[in-house]
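Per reviewer request, we include the raw input and output of the structure prediction for the construct analysed in the revised manuscript.
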Amino acid sequence: MSVQPFKIEVPQAVLDDLRDRLARTRPARGVEDGGWDYGTDPAYLAELCAYWRDGYDWRRQEAYLNSFSQFRAEVDGVGLHFVHIRGKGPDAIPLLLVHGWPDSFARFLKLIPLLTDPAAHGLPGAPSFDVVAPSLPGFGFSDRGQPGMIFEAGDLLHRLMTDVLGYRRFAVQGGDWGGTVAEQLARSHGKSVIGVHLTDVPFFHMFQPPKDPSRAEAAYLKKMGDFQKTEGGYAIIQSTRPMSLAAGLNDSPAGLAARIVEKFRAWSDCGGDLERRFSKDELLTQLMIYWVTGTIDSSMMPYFDFAAAGPMRWTSEGIKTWLGAAHDTPAAFALFPKDLVPPPREWAERFFNVTRWTEMPRGGHFAALEEPELLAEDLGATFRPLWEQVRAAA
């Protein structure tokens, strides 16, 4: 399980092919004055693709990505790509950052400097962190893995942190699929995980609704049901026929952009103005990681794997079998108001040992990109006391 330095070096032929495809895009006609009401706005998509073709500088973005120390290691036969940057100063806290869909390890690039060198970035007195930010199996520069790999992700990342990188104890932060993996780690590897920090309650818990919901929980479950009807079609497609969709997205950069930027707009705190939160370069760098690795298909497989896992996965016994026994690992939640459907605290307390609950003033699903300072401050406040307890007990 040796660690090898990794550098992103996309062949020029891949970039030339991309530019050619963008030049030959056949845009959809759309609906007159439809804007974003029917999905991605064709006018904005045309603007974005024109910039992607003629203005976006991948080599500049590639150099920026490569300014973060990256590595690959084979863990149980799976090649994992990850950023690993050690914190400034003594006694840095080991922290695993786990991304979700439809983004990548690049979700954390604004956040990482605030964690590894807080004093240099306007956070004097904040703890520093040794940061490990992997690409999940099937995403980006990690191996594609096999069907069902999402159920093994927690074990793989535990071995990466402990056996490969040598951290006996560490903290975990995640949201979306990253939150699901963080819960795997907390339940199955609680002796290693000092605490988890989540931006949502993993979605699968809604499939085991309680018989005695509180008023807030009942309202939350109704909103989740409404979300599934109005915004959840993507998950149904990806959990039933992902390869039918992937064939088009992997072949057409415009199609890939239409699929992903719509989610960045709908799930962020942008007020309908996508570039109020994300620059074109930020959006396109996320797209490029999918495009140059050809991993949009494998990135959608976790949805299929969960749906195909069978009904026992959604019973209390099934979840305990997969995740392990009920755990006491401290869990902090940072809820950003424009995330999909922020849950009430009592819902989280059904599944987690909630020790900190923060309702943020702004931000959405992509918190590390949207509000890195707020997230960094909350991570410091969450994990400093937990790490002090670990050090005192050592």
